[in-house]
Design goal:
One of its GO terms (biological process) is ribosome biogenesis. This protein is α/β, with parallel strands linked by helices. The protein folds into 2 domains: 159 residues, GTP1/OBG domain (Spo0b-associated Gtp-binding Protein, Chain: A, Distorted Sandwich); 164 residues, 3-Layer(aba) Sandwich (Rossmann fold), CATH 3.40.50.300. It has 4 helices and 14 strands. The strands form 3 sheets. Strands 10-11-9-12-13-14 form a 6-stranded mixed beta sheet, with helices on both faces. Strands 3-1-8-5-6 form a 5-stranded mixed beta sheet, with no helix packed on it. It has a 3-stranded mixed beta sheet with strand order 4-2-7, with no helix packed on it. Bound molecules: guanosine-5'-triphosphate (GTP) and magnesium ion.
Length: 331
């Protein structure tokens, strides 16, 4: 089993602080027998805030947080003293974190920049003290506002990885083998489907100190967008990649058909994925002889740059990297 230090989904109850009550108070001083109202306002309740942190790669640190609760604001006091605001709680999250309402599934916002802060659950406003309510007809208002209550809601955070190139292929296509042969990442490799259960990122070195980041995600099968296999859970990880590298093994029954199925699943999940640049690599081509390869070249899908590679025999990997680099930098 792949270990699960990689967490890309958490659900928790987020509760902001209530606002402090406004104060109902009258000035009392020896020489002022009938002092006017001087109740101060209540403080604001603490917000729950998400903050982007470019050093984080997973939501693991939030996995065991089931309740996130911010402090309430303090009540106002006499002498027009405003109560202290409740302390905000700031949860740091990796870039690419999407906050959703757990009940409706509705997306609230996405954190995309380092240091970006967005209020997830707003703290209640503090109530106004009676000082605010004096008027010509009521010099001594005997009421003050209560603080607004805090909000309690269930939130889902989902992480979309940010890589330059995302691998797309059926289980067993050789995605993890490719990543491990061109980067230092060591994903698990197996001759059975669904070896990869969590996404892996690898930095691929490219000529003269350049590099790009490649994401290996669990294999996609027909019906994935409808929840089959490991389902759509991992498809979101290719949403933020700038280009997509399709990997189809040389021993596939029908390369064109596999390509169409993969495209279809992406489209069902999110049609915008089809706007991304695509490349096609035919993997495991060490299994082909020259004759077969020539024959297959005529049967590849049209309109997509393609290359025959073998991660095991290390063939055409530089050519593939050139193609990826070009695609990333022309887009
Ligand atoms: N002959 C040959 N076999 C390969 C090559 N690349 C991968 N394989 C084999 O194909 C099988 C699947 O490889 P993986 O890299 O685990 O495939 P994957 O696409 O990551 O599979 P999932 O994680 O299950 O989606 C393994 O038995 C690999 O040894 C290659 O270039 N040539
Ligand atoms: Mg794999």
């Amino acid at each position: 089993m792949a270990d699960s230090n990689f967490i890309d989904y958490v659900k928790f109850c987020s509760r902001s602080g209530a606002g402090g009550a406004g104060s109902l108070h009258f000035r009392r001083e020896k020489h002022v027998p009938k002092g006017g109202p001087d109740g101060g306002d209540g403080g604001r309740g603490g917000h729950i805030i998400l903050k982007g942190n470019a050093q984080l790669w997973t939501l693991l640190h939030l996995k065991y947080k089931k309740h996130v609760i911010a402090e309430s604001g303090k009540s106002g006091e006499g002498g027009r003293r405003t109560g202290a605001d409740g302390k905000d709680i700031i949860l740091e999250v990796p870039l690419g974190t999407v906050a959703k309402d757990a009940e409706t599934g509705e997306k609230r916002f996405e954190i995309t920049e380092d240091g970006q802060e967005v209020i997830l659950t707003k703290g209640g406003r503090g109530g106004l003290g009676n000082d605010h309510f004096k008027s010509a007809t009521n010099q001594a208002p005997h009421f003050a506002q209560p603080g607004e209550t805090g909000i309690e809601e269930w939130i889902i955070l989902e992480l979309k990885l940010l890589a330059d190139v995302g691998l797309v292929g059926f289980p067993n296509a050789g995605k993890s083998t490719l990543l491990s042969s061109i980067s230092a990442a060591k994903p698990e490799i197996g001759d059975y489907p669904f070896t990869t259960l969590v996404p892996n990122l690898g930095v691929v070195a490219y000529r003269d100190d350049k590099s790009f980041v490649m994401a290996d995600i669990p294999g996609i099968i027909e019906g994935a967008a409808d929840g089959k296999g490991l389902g759509i859970r991992f498809l979101r990880h290719i949403e933020r990649n700038s280009i997509l590298l399709f990997l189809i093994p040389a021993d596939a029954d029908n390369i064109k058909k596999q390509y169409k199925i993969l495209l279809g699943e992406l489209e069902k999940y999110n049609p915008e994925l089809l706007d991304k640049q695509r490349l096609l690599a035919i993997s495991k081509s060490d299994m082909l002889d020259d004759e077969l390869m020539t024959e297959m070249k005529n049967e590849l899908p049209e309109g997509i740059p393609s290359v025959f590679i073998s991660a095991v025999a290390q063939t055409n990997l530089d050519k593939l990297k050139d193609m990826i680099w070009q695609a990333i930098h022309q887009g």
